[in-house]
Specification:
This protein has 150 residues and is mainly alpha-helical. The chain has helices at residues 18-47, 49-72, 80-108, 114-140. It contains 4 helices and no strands. Helix 1 packs antiparallel against helix 2 (49-72), helix 1 runs antiparallel to helix 4 (114-140) and helix 3 packs antiparallel against helix 4 (114-140). The radius of gyration is 19 Å and the shape is elongated.
Length: 150
């Protein structure tokens, strides 16, 4: 008598309500923001405010986006091209946005303390994070018809 081969299990379904997505997004955002601004604060003295901000954004955006792909919006297919475009767009947005925020801060306060810069960037990042959540939920990881191309 032959032993039947085990059936392949379907991937677990994940609730995809707004509250579930928002909860995972918020949790990841808190961790990512803490890491981003710790990196910024540590690198700022060695490479300057703008370069430290850019390096911290690049490192954390790649990890954060992958987390959202695998956990927050799990089970939603996205084409690699779309994923790379989303990561590049997010890095460009936050790099430009962070640079403008730092330029405005330096215009208002000639020599802000590193902690002040960090807090201002973190506050500005909150608004950018809300916009990014909307883009991720309703564009990047939106449910698509199986025939649609990404």
């Amino acid at each position: 008598m032959a032993i039947p081969a085990p059936a392949t299990a379907a991937p677990p379904t994940r609730p995809d309500g707004l509250a579930v997505h928002a909860g995972w997004y918020l949790a990841a955002g808190v961790v990512t923001t803490a890491v981003q601004f710790a990196l910024y604060f540590l690198l700022r003295g060695a490479v300057g405010a703008h370069v430290a901000n850019l390096l911290a954004i690049i490192v954390t955006t790649i990890g954060n986006t992958e987390f959202h792909r695998r956990v927050t919006f799990a089970g939603r297919n996205d084409a690699p091209r779309r994923r790379h475009l989303q990561v590049a767009g997010t890095i460009a947005f936050y790099a430009g946005y962070g640079s403008v925020v730092l330029l405005v801060l330096h215009a208002v306060v000639p020599a802000p303390a590193p902690l002040t810069e960090t807090l201002v960037l973190a506050t500005a990042s909150l608004l950018g994070g809300v916009c990014r959540f909307a883009l991720l939920r309703w564009w990047v990881f939106a449910h698509r018809h199986p025939d649609s191309r990404g």
